[in-house]
Amino acid sequence: MSDKLGALREYDIHSDWTIYNRRLESYFKANGIEDDEKKRAILLNSLNEEAYKLMYNLCMPVVPENKQYNELTSIFDEHFKSSLSPFAARYKFYNSAMDAHETVANWAARVRSLAGQCEFGSTVYDWVLRDRFIIGFEKGPIQDRLFEEKITCSFSDVITIASSKMAAQKNSCMEEVKIEPGLHHISQHPRTPSTAQNRSVMSDSGASGSGVQNRRKKCTVCGRRNHFTSDYISPKFIKARPLPYGIKEKVEKEIDRLIELGVLKQVDYSRWASPIVPVLKKDGSVRICGDFKITINPHLEVDQFPLPLVDDILAELGGSVIFSKIDLSHAYNQVELEEESQDSGVC
Length: 347
Known about the structure:
single chain; Non-ribosomal Peptide Synthetase Peptidyl Carrier Protein, Chain A; 13 helices
């Protein structure tokens, strides 16, 4: 087992030489390597074939093995030295913005990286990074919160505030909505089985028998008789939940697409409203689902049917030679709701 501390990966010319050189110096210091020949040998051995060829060409007519370690690092320092002027670097810095998929910590790190070649003075360095960090946010609750801070706040202060605000915003998106008990009607004067209303109650509830039998059943909400819960449901209107900024544009485009296809239609008023649940698919698109478990699902009359066993299905398929499969895109959108049910499907 090696008694060396740490490990060095191969260096390729597409990596950052400045960062690799600093790691190399840390490796030498951690392992007490001070001999110049050892340093040179480790450096050359750490270069991949493409990087060694570059070093070899830059050292001509002398081979790299005959150069001092400091000479080799200076050759690469000069070769990989950025030709970007401070003004060009500042142009990139001042035009940067937080990406939709970036975390607060990653955005702060990118701001620091972009400022590396801008040659900001030490007296204004923290202020400039702070300002770019705040302005780079998309307009919204996080930037509004940062605008409330005093001008004396530091770069580290605004990073902490933005991280806390983003965490709170994510938690609010996942917050469960409390279900309030629905109001329902209690009939004070039950009608006879021959009335039209009584026949409608029987049909809607799926019950059979006389009106007297129906009056003996208890409401699942209040426990009283003479009415059914499903016949007197109070509509629920749940406010829309805030969307993560990373998928907000995708959700809006998907809604527009579904409206254009006629799957959805826009309404100005509804007694029912369920919040949507956007699901990010593997191909990067968004599937929009409705969170009906807090609105209409508790009141649905479900047709219960036992699922067949796998063995039963295989037994029925025995002897078959031709098989077919249907795969419906957006399967639930293939079934159109009846007009009287569309109001309860509003999202």
